[in-house]
Amino acid sequence: MLEIPVDLGERAYTVSIGHGLSAALPELLADHRGRRALVVSNRRVWSLHGARVEKALRKLGPLARVLIADGEAHKDRATLAAIHDAMWKERLGRDGLVVAFGGGVVGDVAGFAAATWMRGVDWVQLPTTLLAMVDSSVGGKVGINHPGGKNLIGAFHQPRAVVIDPAFLATLPRRETQSGAYEILKCGVIADRALFKALADAPVGLVGWGRVEVENAIASAVRIKAEVVEKDEREGGLRRVLNLGHTIGHALEAVTRYRRFTHGEAVGWGLVGAAWIAHRRDLFAGSAFDSLAAAVDRLGPRPRVSDLSTARILAAIGSDKKAVKGRAAFVLPTRIGAVTIRPDVQAAEIRRALRVMNGREALTAR
Ligand code: NAD
Ligand code: GLY
Question: Would residue 312 show up in a list of annotated catalytic residues for this protein?
Answer without folding.
Answer: no
